[in-house]
User: Which sequence fits this backbone?
C-alpha cells in the first residue's frame, strides 16, 4: 500500500522524525530558515499530512492549497496561534500540539529570566567584557531581592503553575490572574484581577495564549500600573506585549527591567530600539529548548501526525470538535 504523503516544514529531532520517515513518504524542508508562505503553498499540494512549526502560517488558503485529502496538521509546539483553528475545524482537519511535555523546561527558563533580569546577570557579563570592572563596589549593578517578593502570574495554566512551584522555593507570594480558572479553585496563590496583580507584583510573568483578548495586554496603560521597581518576564508570545510601550517604560524607568524570550516580530530586527536597552534581556525563543524536551516534542508531533493519517484520534488535539 502506498505510504501517506507528508510535508515536514523543518528538520526536527530524530526521535520523532524517524517515526515519520518509517510510516510516510516525506518531503522535508531542510533549510535553516522556514519556507516562505508561497513556497509552503506549493509544497503542501496533495499532502495527506502536515508537520509544521510555530514559524509557519497555516491558514484557510493553505489548507485549500493542500487539497481535500489533507487529514491532519501537527504543530511542533504547544502554542497554535500560527494556525487558523476555525478554518481547520470547518474542514474537519484535526490539529495537534505538544502540551505538557515542555512545562518544566519553560518554567525553568522563565524563572531563570526573572533572576537574570533582577540581578542583572547579562548586564554584569557585558560590564566585565567591556573592561568596566575596576573594583568591587558597594553600589555596582544593584537590583531587587527575589526571595520573599511578590510574583504575579498572568495565565495560570500548566506553565504558570509550574513557575509558582519554583517561586515557592524562594518564599515568593503568588498572585495570579486567569479568567479561565474557576473561582474558588484551590490552586496555590491568590486569584486577583489584572489591575491588582500589576499594582502589587514585584515580578510579573506572562503565560497566556495569544488571542484577540491578550494581544497587547501589556501596553502603555497596563505598564503604568506596575511598580517602578517591577520586572516583567515574557515567555508566552511576543505580541502579548506592545514592544513600543515596553521600550518607553524601560527607557523612562517606569519599570525596572524586563526579560523576553519572545518578541514581535521574531526575530527582532537588529535596528529595534529595544536592543539599545541595558535593562532588557532578550533570548531567541528558547524557553523549551532543553534536548530531552525537544526530543519529546518531536515524538508527540509525530504521534499526532501518524494518528491523524490513520484516522485515529490525535493524542493531543486542539480542536476535538472535529470528532
Ligand atoms: C511552544 O511550543 O509554543 C513554544 O513557544 C516553543 O516551544
Assistant:
Amino acid at each position: 500500500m502506498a505510504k501517506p504523503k507528508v510535508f515536514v516544514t523543518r528538520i526536527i529531532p530524530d526521535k520523532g522524525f524517524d517515526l515519520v520517515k518509517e510510516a510516510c513518504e516525506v518531503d522535508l524542508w531542510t533549510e535553516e530558515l522556514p519556507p516562505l508562505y508561497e513556497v509552503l503553498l506549493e509544497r503542501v499540494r496533495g499532502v495527506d499530512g502536515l508537520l509544521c512549526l510555530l514559524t509557519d502560517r497555516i491558514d484557510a488558503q493553505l489548507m485549500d492549497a493542500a487539497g481535500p485529502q489533507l487529514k491532519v496538521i501537527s504543530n511542533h509546539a504547544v502554542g497554535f496561534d500560527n494556525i487558523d483553528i476555525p478554518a481547520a475545524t470547518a474542514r474537519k482537519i484535526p490539529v495537534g500540539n505538544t502540551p505538557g511535555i515542555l512545562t518544566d523546561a519553560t518554567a525553568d527558563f522563565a524563572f531563570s529570566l526573572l533572576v537574570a533580569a533582577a540581578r542583572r546577570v547579562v548586564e554584569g557579563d557585558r560590564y566585565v567584557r567591556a573592561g568596566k570592572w575596576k573594583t568591587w563596589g558597594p553600589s555596582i549593578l544593584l537590583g531587587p531581592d527575589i526571595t520573599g517578593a511578590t510574583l504575579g502570574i498572568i495565565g495560570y495554566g500548566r506553565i504558570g503553575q509550574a513557575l509558582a512551584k519554583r517561586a515557592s522555593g524562594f518564599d515568593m507570594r503568588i498572585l495570579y490572574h486567569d479568567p479561565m480558572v474557576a473561582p474558588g479553585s484551590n490552586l496555590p496563590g491568590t486569584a486577583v484581577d489584572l489591575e491588582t496583580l500589576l499594582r502589587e507584583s514585584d515580578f510579573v510573568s506572562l503565560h497566556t495564549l495569544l488571542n484577540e483578548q491578550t494581544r497587547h495586554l501589556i501596553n502603555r496603560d497596563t505598564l503604568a500600573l506596575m511598580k517602578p521597581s517591577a520586572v516583567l518576564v515574557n515567555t508566552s508570545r511576543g505580541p502579548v506585549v506592545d514592544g513600543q510601550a515596553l521600550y518607553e517604560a524601560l527607557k523612562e524607568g517606569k519599570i525596572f527591567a524586563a526579560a523576553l524570550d519572545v518578541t514581535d516580530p521574531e526575530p527582532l530586527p537588529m535596528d529595534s530600539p529595544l536592543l539599545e536597552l541595558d535593562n532588557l534581556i532578550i533570548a531567541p525563543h528558547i524557553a523549551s529548548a532543553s534536548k530531552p524536551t525537544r526530543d519529546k516534542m518531536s515524538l508527540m508531533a509525530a504521534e499526532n501526525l501518524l494518528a491523524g493519517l490513520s484516522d485515529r484520534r490525535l493524542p493531543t488535539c486542539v480542536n476535538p470538535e472535529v470528532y
In short: The longest helix spans residues 291-309.
